Amino acid sequence: MRDAIWPQPLLDTIVARGTEPLFELGDRIVSGDEMTAMIRRVAAGLRAGGVGPGDGVVLHLGVSPEAFAVIVAAFAVGARVTGVRADQLEHVLSTSGGRLIDESSLTGLLTSPDDGLPLTAAGRPAAVAWILYTSGSTGQPKGCCRTYAAISQGWNAYPDRWPPAIREIASGLGRFLVFGSLSSAVMLEYSVLALTAGGVLVAADPPIYPEALSRLQATAGVITVGRLHQLVRAQRERPEDLSRLRALMVSGSPLEPRRLAEALEVLGPVIFHEYGQTETGPIAMITPAELTARPDLLSSVGQPPPGVAVEVRGGELFVRTPAQAQFYWDDPAESAEVFVDGWVRTRDLAEIRLDGYLRLSGRARDVIIVQAELVYAGPIERALASHRAVAEAYVIGRPDEDSGEAVHAFVVPEPGQVPPVEELRALVRDRLGPKAVPQTVTFVDAVPLTPNGKPDKKALDPYRATPSSRTGHGTAR
């Protein structure tokens, strides 16, 4: 149906909110009526500037009501929308192209006269609506292209389509914490869900956990695994009042079962562990109720909701989701490799349990070739993280004269503890065999994070192991 084309349901939701609060930024509260007026002016300004269905816009904006209005207006006029971080800006402009809208452009758009045209979604179903760039953690960032038809098949703005887990989350989105970039996939999708559920977006940029959650009385937020570890540690050492927190959506990478159990113990039954990719959107989710009722599910990322299909082929997970991307922008070779006959090749190693729950075991491309044998980083990291004195563990490969490549581990110890290196090496040897044993174990205070909050393995190389850690004695910080 035409009236269901994205972002029409969101536009209707915003208009219907009227004088109700929609967005909070410090002491400023923006109502539905005020947001509607901003969207109308920005849409008029875009049209006056020649931006319409199929035209590209590149958004480099922070977190503000104005930024949100620009994003919604760009979709409303049917543009091809690309959100971008500062470190990706040059690459994106040179590949996807389009009109750049940054903070300096906002005043002109927001002061555009309302042209009186209906606030109606103008997107063409088959046209590219959204180019979402991957983090580039496994190579050059790739632009995942979703069409207006695909986004319109999603569920965030359509309450009648909400799966049970999403419905449970929606009930806790009264005050949803927003930060970073509102045009990022996860942040925009949960913002739309929050507004559709009647919630308010509350901004904190950058968010300092747990202080921001407490100060803004946030009931929900999105958090990466690395930042979740930091939050749990902070709550143990200097607890803040998080009694209003109802839903904390963890995404970005799998959680080691022991660490997930600890997060539930410290933060309460608020952890929703989501698994998805930029190419696919959400694939599976597990709820706090499932995790607390069934400890055997702590190693799972949940069940795919209705409408999501999964298959394991040769150990690798293939998926189909309603709102998935169709191809990579300007990259036909990689598109043919990943988008196969309507399926998306995730390049994640996985198994589907008999009860339908998914379990991930690593990245198909996150491998180290030791003596001509493939050694996957994920299982090594999980083995190391299972040690009682290890908070986090990450593994990389480096060239080695004897074995071709060798495994090198970076470990964040639990506060006040120093795990014996030989115990860690023995733990890996016993579970995975001698080729998986780290040649070096380097202790670090924290693992660097990418701009989107994921562990940055590329940045670990400056922490090169010392001779003492090669022999299994001592630490390097």
From TrEMBL:
PROSITE patterns to which the protein is assigned, alphabetical: AMP_BINDING (PS00455)
Boundaries of each AMP-binding enzyme C-terminal domain copy? 380-454
Q: Which Pfam families match?
A: AMP-binding, AMP-binding_C
Q: Any stretches that span the bilayer, and where are they? A: none
> GO terms for molecular function, please?
acid-thiol ligase activity
Region Disordered: list its residue ranges.
448-477
Q: Where is the AMP-dependent synthetase/ligase domain?
A: 27-329
Biased composition range(s): Polar residues: 466-477
InterPro entries, per this entry?
AMP-bd_C (IPR025110), AMP-bd_C_sf (IPR045851), AMP-binding_CS (IPR020845), AMP-dep_synth/lig_dom (IPR000873), ANL_N_sf (IPR042099), ATP-dep_AMP-bd_enzyme (IPR050237)
Q: Which SUPFAM superfamilies match?
A: Acetyl-CoA synthetase-like
Name assigned to this protein: AMP-dependent synthetase
The scientific name of the source species is Paractinoplanes toevensis
